[in-house]
Amino acid sequence: MELNEVTISRAIVAEQAKVFIDYLEMDVAVVGGGPSGLTCAAILGEEGIKCGVIEKKLSIGGGMWGGGMMLPRIVVQESARRLLDKFGISYTEYETGYYVARSVEAVSKLTAAAATAGVEFFNLTTVEDVMVKGDGRVSGLVINWSPVKMAGLHVDPLTLSCRYTIDATGHDAVVAHMLQHKTGDLTVKGEGFMWAEQAESGVVRHTREVYPGLIVTGMAANAVAGEHRMGPVFGGMLLSGEYAAHLAIESLRR
Asked: From the CA atom positions of the chain, what is the Rg in Å?
């Protein structure tokens, strides 16, 4: 069989165009493909929710890839160990209640779980703005290619609609900041100093619907609440993503 370059190009464009058109309307848009966003998306997909992950970078995984200071290991505490088991992420017990996993394996298996569950990924895609109409809810996102923003080009964006948006953009809390700037009805307090115990205990509590149609998860949740940061312990990220998914599922099925 001879390979035809045009056929290869046509296959990529045709198949991705179908997906892109289909996902201009979705149930849940997860903005940010870090650990909380991936966990959230995987669980949504398992429940049959039409979900897409929008990631501004080329690669999925957020800050988990680098572990702690580029040492590719992460720590997960006892309360989240069941999620390591759920996603088939191997680990060793360092001491009672502290489990060490390989960061690359963790990202890969979370990504694979989401993909297997039917989640679509839109990497190199930036959220420029949100859509809020007469009912006062976040009803969609304004998107563009990340290289357009990086190059400072003036290219009009496109829009997609979604019933819920999950802000999983980490420390930057990108979507929440957009709503703070444009509506004044949401305050992003900004994250506090490093305090792992406080941050980990707070992150699930801060995972909530902070604006109609917008749920914050992971470090975005802590940033909105003014909570501390926690460093390379990721149990809270996984638990927060799980809880964000459950919040969206519960609301969608009312």
From this structure: 18
Residue 68 lies in a domain: no
> Quick one: pLDDT at residue 2?
86
- Any domain includes 189: yes
Q: Considering the domain boundaries, does residue 94 fall inside one?
A: no
Q: What's the pLDDT at 1?
A: 81
pLDDT band at 254 (very low <50, low <70, confident <90, very high): confident
Let me know if residue 1 belongs to a domain.
Answer: no
Quote the CA–CA distance of 99 and 78 in Å, as a whole number: 7
Structure tokens at 113: 């779980």
> SS3 string of the chain?
CCCCHHHHHHHHHHHHHHHHHHCCEEEEEEECCCHHHHHHHHHHHHCCCCEEEEECCCCCCHHHCCCECCECEEEEEHHHHHHHHHCCCCEEEEECCEEEEEHHHHHHHHHHHHHHCCCEEEECEEEEEEEECCCCCEEEEEEEEHHHHHHCCCCCCEEEEEEEEEECCHHHCHHHHHHHHHHCCCCCCCCCCECHHHHHHHHHHHCEEEECCEEECCHHHHHHHCCCECCCECHHHHHHHHHHHHHHHHHHCC
Range of the domain at 173: 11-63+104-252
Tens digits of residue pLDDT in 131-162: 999 999 999 999 999 999 999 999 999 999 99
